[in-house]
Specification:
Layout (H helix, E strand, L loop, with lengths): L10 E2 L4 E4 L4 E4 L6 E4 L1 H9 L6 H12 L3 H14 L4 E2 L21 H8 L8 E7 L23 H14 L3 E6 L8 H10 L3 E6 L8 H10 L3 E5 L5 H8 L5 H14 L2 E7 L8 H11 L3 E5 L18 H17 L5 E3 L18 H4 E4 L4 E3 L11 E4 L5 H5 L2 H9 L8 H4 L4 H4 L4 H8 L16
Parallel strand pairs: 6-7, 6-13, 7-8, 8-9, 9-10, 10-11, 11-12
Antiparallel strand pairs: 1-5, 2-3, 3-4, 13-14, 14-15
Helix pairs in contact: 2-3, 5-6, 6-7, 7-9, 10-11
The structure holds S-adenosylmethionine (SAM) and iron/sulfur cluster (2 copies).
Length: about 450
């Protein structure tokens, strides 16, 4: 079909942003999982998808700008619409506001950098993930963090602010704050404000106790431009909440946190971990949360965690129980479609096939930084020496990312004699790098074993 027959109006999805970088551009949504390094000319094209032009008009503008003949311009436009469809809506009416200026992307792409990303090497990480504190005021039975870790706590707000500025100057998009409970770190709110002021996207999951103690916190987050926050919520009653979190009397604060955030206009995402004790109360919990106006609810299957974490010893639901919960959550998903986006737990037995391969990507595009200043691949890996590749009290983020220790670590993740033979022959190895080191360790005792969720090797 020729592009002139495409009678629709492509528009960038409302939560998608484009960002010019040095030799490439970024297209991304609100989550680090949806970020792509693209050629600046593709970003130029996407900026033209502003809900005003039809495909033939976009093809014309694109072709005139890059000196293509009409057929080639049509062909390229069809290809780009298909290649970047995850960022686009196709049903728009003309007249949406122009959000990104195509001229901002008229600079040459650096093919080496862009191809490097396809091999899992990002010039600048998409996000940094800062563990603000190892401490938590809860002690959830299922928690994947090693809550006993203390390390040498060297953080203070000043150092964290420096990191945020450094990351923003470097072009990092996402600022993840985690813990322990991030909101018990003095100054967490200032860090979010600082990140937002510098155009970063802060992401944070909290147990809600601090946010639910003072309605002004939610107001301040909204005023600073925070769009979304995730609250952990596992039970619809105070009794069960106390039991799961092994704390006392905090449930009203968690409810308040949800109320205050919804009232302040933030998009509230609920993350809920399924356990044998909570599996029967998932339906009333969803009803309650939808009534409170949350925007999204993800029910997750309990994963294994850091060495010494409670999750590794906690009882999990059986596969049969998981199936039953999944069906029930699916029914709620259908019931509340259009009101709240509800995600049933994943099938824990399903392994990746070619079409649904979903590696972690942390080693390619993220840095996890601990209160000790150590930088590692993942926030579950504090103290794992082989995966620690720098310390922010010794060197800057950029020097650590481009340093020898990280290059060595990356090299180890593709060394045929160190990794699983399946991974060694897999065509996705350089992007995957055997994927989740922690899950592999929990399953086999080896960090560089094949990810237990993988049905590979793949050959494409
Ligand atoms: C480790 S917590 C840190 C942030 C904060 N303390 C909280 O609970 O929201 C981050 C998220 O991981 C989830 N989580 C903890 N242990 C888990 C496990 N074993 N499997 C899946 N998710 C888990 C928590 O419920 C929470 O939503
Ligand atoms: S899941 Fe969060 S709130 Fe619960 S113990 Fe772990 S860090 Fe604390
Ligand atoms: S076989 Fe190994 S490298 Fe290939 S996709 Fe699976 S985990 Fe990744």
């Amino acid at each position: 079909m020729g592009i002139e027959q495409n009678d629709f109006i492509p528009a960038l999805k409302s939560d998608v942003r484009l960002k010019p970088m040095n030799g490439y551009a970024l297209a991304h949504g609100y989550h680090p999982s949806l970020i792509r390094m693209i050629d600046p000319s593709h970003a130029f094209f996407l900026a033209l998808c502003n809900g005003t032009f039809r495909p033939a008009e976009i093809a014309y503008l694109y072709g005139e700008t890059f000196g293509l003949d009409a057929d080639d311009a049509d062909y390229q436009a069809s290809r780009l619409l298909d290649q970047h469809r995850m960022f686009l809506d196709f049903g728009g009416e003309p007249g949406e506001a122009v959000r990104f200026s195509p001229q901002d992307f008229l600079f040459p792409g650096d093919k080496g950098k862009i191809d490097g990303a396809a091999y899992g090497k990002w010039p600048v990480p998409a996000g940094i993930n800062v563990t603000l504190t190892f401490k938590c005021n809860f002690n959830c039975s299922y928690c994947y963090q090693d809550l006993l870790q203390t390390g040498d706590n060297r953080w203070d707000l000043g150092k964290c602010r420096e990191l945020v500025e450094e990351a923003a100057d470097w072009g990092v998009v996402f600022l993840g704050l985690t813990g322990g409970e991030p909101t018990i770190f003095k100054g967490w709110l200032e860090l979010i404000e600082a990140g937002l002021k510098r155009g970063m996207i802060p992401t944070m999951t909290s147990n809600g106790t601090v946010i639910g103690s003072d309605p002004e916190i939610a107001q301040r987050l909204a005023a600073a431009g925070m769009e979304e926050i995730t609250i952990s919520f596992d039970a619809p009653s105070a009794e069960l909440h106390d039991e799961i979190t092994r704390s006392k009397g905090q449930f009203p604060k968690v409810l308040n946190a949800v109320r205050y955030l919804v009232d302040a206009g933030l998009r509230v995402v609920i993350k809920s971990v399924l356990t044998p004790r909570t599996q029967h109360s998932v339906e009333p919990m969803i009803d309650m949360l939808v009534t409170m106006g949350v925007h999204e609810i993800g029910i997750s299957f309990m994963e294994g965690g850091a060495i010494e974490s409670g999750a590794n010893a906690a009882d999990n639901v059986s596969m049969d129980e998981l199936r039953i919960v999944r069906d029930r959550v699916q029914a709620k998903r259908e019931l509340y479609a259009g009101t709240c986006d509800i995600h049933p737990p994943k099938d824990a037995e399903k392994v990746w096939k070619d079409g649904d391969w979903y590696p972690c990507g942390g080693i390619n595009m993220g840095m996890s930084i601990f209160p000790t200043g150590d930088v590692s691949v993942c926030d579950k890996m504090h103290g794992v020496k082989d995966f620690t590749y720098g310390n922010v009290f010794d060197r800057g983020l950029e020097a650590i990312w481009n340093g020898e220790a990280f290059a060595d670590l990356r090299e180890r993740t593709v060394q045929p004699d160190l990794i699983d033979p399946d991974c060694a022959k897999c065509s996705k190895l350089y992007q995957c790098r055997t994927s989740c080191f922690v899950d592999a360790y929990n399953a086999t005792g080896k960090y560089l074993a094949k990810d237990p969720h993988c049905g590979g090797p793949f050959f494409d």
